[in-house]
Every structure is written in structure tokens, then in C-alpha cells.
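re the bet — no i am not wrong, look at it urself. input seq straight from the record:
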Amino acid sequence: MSILFQILQVLGSLGLFLYGMTLLSESLQKVAGDKMRSILAAMTSNSFKRVLTGLFITAIIQSSSATTVMVVSFVNAGLLSLAQSVGVIMGANIGTTVTAWIISLLGFKADISVLSIPLIGIGFAFMMSKSKKRKSIGELIIGFALLFLGLSFLKNSVPDLKSTPEVLEFIKEWTSFGFFSVLIFVAFGTLLTIVLQSSSATMALTLVMSSYGWIPFEMAAAMVLGENIGTTITANIAAAIANVSARRAALAHTVFNLFGVTWVLILFNPILRLVSYITISVGGGDPFLSSDSTLYGVSFLHTLFNVTNTLLLVWFTPQIVKLVSYVIKAPKVEEVFRLQFIQGGLLSTAELSLTQAKHEIVNFAHLGQRQFEYVRSAIKECDKDSFDGIFSKLEHYEQITDRVELEIANYLNNISEGEISEESGRRLQAMYTIISEIESIGDSGYNIARILQRKKVYNSKFDPDMVKKLEHMLDLLDNAFKQMIFNLELGYKNISNISGAEDAENSINEYRNHLKEEHLLNLENNVYNYQTGVFYMDVIAECEKVGDYIINVSEAIIEVQ
């Protein structure tokens, strides 16, 4: 019964900890709202700031795994680019050294949980306010308090290894195999970090074992290297269901740490002697001789490893991006039809999920633009077999746009069930309008294909001048697509006007009117037969409809304000 009670205590403490983390994350995103993207952009505008951002966040939350999982989710949502994420991850690795120094210098961690109850009282006072922002701040404070309260309960409910050192005493037997022992402890550190899901926790355990004298300095150093490999697993697990960019970010973390571990293992003995020299120089003693000094030696090694590795690789961020992009290739055109950003489900808050939906809609718009590249090919194609192939693709695109619209709409429905601000509600309504207009673009692309198919059945042919004018209309449409996608990417807060989109729409209408007048003159002068003229003007009319759908998207964006 006591074992069952202890298991339930652990699970309850873990639940409280995770609930506190979720509440903290959600309320932080509500308070930040749409400013989150600009804040992140400001914090990661150059390599130095990116590294500092990762360092600062990890030093506070004491987990590089949590930081990298957060970074992966931001990359998945499009809040961070791949290059930005690499810098933040490098900084996160340096941030993990803080834990080692706290333990080494103080011998214990401050119990922040004593402040939890007073913080809950302060948070509750904020939640009594009618202001949504103050309520969110109250949730943030309570989430912070519950996080550390759960952490305290978790610490007390798990058996303390310090009081039972004999549990891991068998490890001492693994230290007598020379360099093979080093590799064993690298693997052990990796495995332990994967199980505990925290390199900081494993670092604490390594310091405890070395202070007890179970393992010499060399083996403790090897465990530190293993921890740096193990900490990458969490991010890769989190990225498994994410998009290509997120998986690349997780792989970049792995590449960074594996490279560092490799060069340190090659220079293992010289580096340990350097660390020993540094430790002795600052009055910490020789880590090879004293278990007390080993604490400082391990902390110096951990810091030296991550700082040096960052200083080496931060200049090669573009090359790391190229490498992970080569290993994890972008899906082919046929595969782009799958959702790219919302396939992993809702993010932690409705606000962040809306940003994810926005990036999926931008992807949807690109899909519509690509469909009209095939429309251009269909207009110029004279060979029947080749035309049939293009027709099948256009038909396929129409089916895909129907499906993508439905899946994004379902995702938006799920967001609407959560708690969202008034402004986010307006964004949500605009998104429904936008996906409907983009789906209509897909319908028009297929309608043009059917018009061209009927033209083939009647053996009608567009003369070179007609093809040239249709291509010019498609050029105007392509410009309109670019303006639409630019406005979609700019977002609902940053856009000040849609003059570029309006100019593109006016150009399409004016050219349509010009061709309409010209068409009547051509019929009168028998330039081409009536049937061919009907097909010609039907394509023009459908293109003009597409122009209307495109401008409707930009108008929906500007109306949010």
C-alpha cells in the first residue's frame, strides 16, 4: 500500500508541476498576444542575441531540453526561422552550466517553493480583476507558483540518492577499462539524460557521484559529454510530428552537440589537463586528486565545452542549416499537398495556434499560385497527351484545395472552442473568409482547364496573338498572387494598406475590359471564329474572377484592424 501511495504521490506531484508549466506558458502567451512574434524577432535578430536568449531562458528554467522543445514548437509555428533556432539552441547549451555551478559553489539549490503560497495569493488577487490582461497576469503568477510547488513535492516524493549512495556503487566497477571506460560513461550519461529528460538533473547526479568518490574526474567528464548527447533526444521526439523546419532545428541541436563531443573525445586527455590547470589556478585544487575539487573540475569542463563549442560553431550557422536541410529534405511538390504547419495539432494556446494557422494559410496561397503555373502550361500546350497530363494535375489541385480548406476550417473550429481575445476573434473570422477565397481560386483553375478541354473537343485553336494576351493576363494574375501572399505573410497587425493588391486588381480589370472591347472588333472583322472567341473570353472571364478572389483575401486581412 505504501508503494502505491508513493507512486501516486510522484504522479500527483508531476501532474501539479506539468499543470503549472502549462498555465505559465498559456498565460504568458495571452499576455504577450500578437507581440510574441515581434519580441522573439527582436531577441533573435543577430547571432549574439540568439545565443544570449537561449542562455537566459535555460538559466531560468534549468532545462536545455525544455528550451529546445520550446524552440522546436516556435519553429513549427513559424515564429522562429531555422537559422535563429540554431543560435538559441547554442545558448541553451551554455545555460545548462548554471546548474553545475550552483551545486558546486553552494552545494544545494534554493527552495523557491516557500514563496509559492504567497505567489498564489498575489495571483488570485490579480484574477479578481475584470481586465482580461490582469487575469492573464494572475494566471501567469499562479502557474509560476504551481510549477515550483510541484517541483518541490516531486523532489520530496522521489527517494533521495544522496541518502542511499549504495544504489549506484556498482558503477565504480566500470572505471578500469582505460579509454573504453570513457566511452562507457559517455553512453551512461546519454542514457541517464534520456530517462530523466533533463541534462541539468543528470549533471546534478554526476556531481553527487563524483563528490562521493564513486567515479574519478575522467569518468565524470565523460558523463558530462554523454549528457550533452542525451539532451538532444527530447527535442527530436518533440519534432517527430512537426514540420520539416522543426525537425531540422532538432537535428541541428544533435549536430552541434555530437560535433562538440567528438572533438573533445579526440583531445580528451589534453583538455582534462587544461581543465585541471584552470581549476588549480583559481584555487579549486586538483580534480584528479581530490573529490571536492572534482566538483569544480566537472563544472569547468561543462562550461568550457559549451562555450568553446558555441564560439566555434556560431560562425558556421549557415553551414549547419545547409547540412540539416540536406539530411532532412523538403517534401516534393506532390507531398506539399499535406498540411505543413498544423499537422501536429493545436499548440498550447489559441493565440499561438492562430499564428500556426496563419502560416498554413500562406502555404495554401502558394498552392493556389502553383496551380496557375499549370494553367499557363495548359494554355500553350497543343499535344493531346501532354494536355491530358496537365488537365489531370489541375483537376488534382482542385481536389486538394477542397481538402486543405476543410482541414484548415476544422483546425480553426478547434481554436474557436478555446478562450480567445476579441482581436483574435476577428482574425479567426478573417481566416475563414480567406480560405474560402483561396479554395475558389482552385475551382477557377479547374474551370479554365475544362474550358480548354472543350476547346480541344471542338478542334478550336488559339492563335499566337491570343496566347500572348492570355499569358499577359496570367502575368497580371501572378503579380496579384505575389501581393496577396506578401500581405498574408505581413500579418494582421503589421499591414498598413493594401494599395499594391488594389493596383494589381485594377490592372486585371482594365486589361479584361480592353480585351472585351477588342474581342467584339475581332469578331466583326472575322479575325477568329465565334466558337474560338467564346472559349477565349471564357478563360479571360475566369481569370478576372480569380483577381476578385485574390483582392478579397487582402481586404479580409486589412478589415481585421
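see?? Residues 422-457 form the longest helix (36 residues). told u. also The CA atoms of residues 100 and 299 lie 5 Å apart. so pay up
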